[in-house]
């Protein structure tokens, strides 16, 4: 963990800022440029990254305040939980939540049925896009888990310094 000890807090905030911008941009690129429609949990996984972007930006200008790192660590832990749950659904280890299932069609009107089908979200079980043989939820789980611990080690190092 020597590289974490030697890395300045300001650089950590900068790297987290760049990483969150990249992650959100990649998700939006997949959705809008490549037409991969995200499921509900995919959308939920973007929330911690949006907040990490904001707090990393603030932390970059106020790097002496270690509480920004605590906040970002909590956000990465929440990202780990959400993506871990999503991965568990994809691997069939967990059941889909009600937010993952499509809304039922309550009308017999043809236009309402077609509108409902076009607005329905994909199931959280489906892995439409894979990178290195892993779903994006699994990649997010692994990265969020590792980054959470790296931030934890940096906080402890700064506290005991």
Structural class: mainly alpha
Number of helices: 7
Strand content: under 5%
Domain count: 1
Q: Which strand order spans the largest sheet, edge to edge or round the barrel?
A: 1-2
* End-to-end gap: 15 Å
Helix-strand topology string: HHHHHHEEH
CATH topology: Bromodomain-like
Shape from CA axes?
A: elongated
CATH 2nd-level architecture:
Up-down Bundle
Rg computed from alpha carbons, rounded to a whole number of angstroms: 19 Å
Chain-averaged pLDDT: 85
SSE inventory with pairings:
Layout: H1 2-6, H2 9-33, H3 40-44, H4 46-61, H5 67-90, H6 110-119, E1 130-131, E2 134-135, H7 136-160
Describe this structure in words.
It is a single chain. With 161 residues, this protein is an all-alpha fold. The chain has a single domain (2-101, 114-160), classed as Bromodomain-like, CATH 1.20.1550. Helices cover 68% and strands 2% of the residues. It has 7 helices and 2 strands. The protein has helices at 2-6, 9-33, 40-44, 46-61, 67-90, 110-119, 136-160; strands spanning 130-131, 134-135. A two-stranded antiparallel sheet has the order 1-2. Helix 4 (46-61) packs antiparallel against helix 5. The mean pLDDT is 85.
């Amino acid at each position: 963990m020597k590289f974490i000890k030697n890395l300045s807090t300001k650089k950590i905030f900068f790297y987290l800022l760049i990483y969150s911008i990249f992650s959100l941009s990649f998700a939006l690129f997949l959705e809008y440029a490549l037409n991969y429609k995200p499921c509900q949990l995919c959308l939920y996984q973007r929330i911690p990254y949006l907040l990490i972007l904001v707090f990393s930006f603030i932390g970059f200008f106020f790097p002496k305040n270690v509480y920004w790192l605590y906040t970002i660590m909590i956000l990465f832990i929440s990202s780990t939980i959400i993506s871990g749950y999503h991965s568990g659904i994809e691997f069939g280890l967990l059941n889909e939540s009600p937010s993952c299932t499509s809304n039922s069609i309550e009308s017999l009107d043809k236009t309402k049925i077609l509108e409902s089908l076009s607005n329905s979200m994909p199931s959280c079980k489906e892995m439409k896009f894979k990178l290195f043989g892993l779903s994006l939820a699994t990649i997010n789980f692994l990265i969020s888990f590792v980054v959470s611990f790296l931030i934890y080690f940096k906080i402890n190092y700064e506290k005991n310094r």
